[in-house]
Amino acid sequence: MTEEYHITEKDIEGMLQYLKIFHPERANREDAKEILEYMKASYHRLAMTDPEALNKLLEEFEKSKKK
Question: pLDDT at residue 2 above 70?
């Protein structure tokens, strides 16, 4: 079994930078961490309920890296 992912300070800082650019009204540490936690839970839920959709996201990511 793989080790559980924990949100890091670097992750929060990265999300905070994104929010400053695209959603300045939400650009605070609390919202940044809350969004990351929601995204983490959403991907976990997707993996449990629709693993094929998760595979599709990975394939789309891999295609984007080739461009």
Answer: no
pLDDT score of 48: 94
Strand, helix or coil for residue 57: helix
Residue with tokens 């650009």: 27
Which CA distances in Å does 47 have to 19, 43, 53?
Answer: 26, 6, 8
Give the position of tokens 């995204």: 39
CA distances from 15 to 11, 26, 42, 55 (A): 6, 11, 16, 24
Rounded CA gap, 58 and 64, in Å? 10
Average pLDDT of the residues in 19-27: 98
Q: What angle do CA 38, 67, 55 make, to 5 degrees?
A: 40
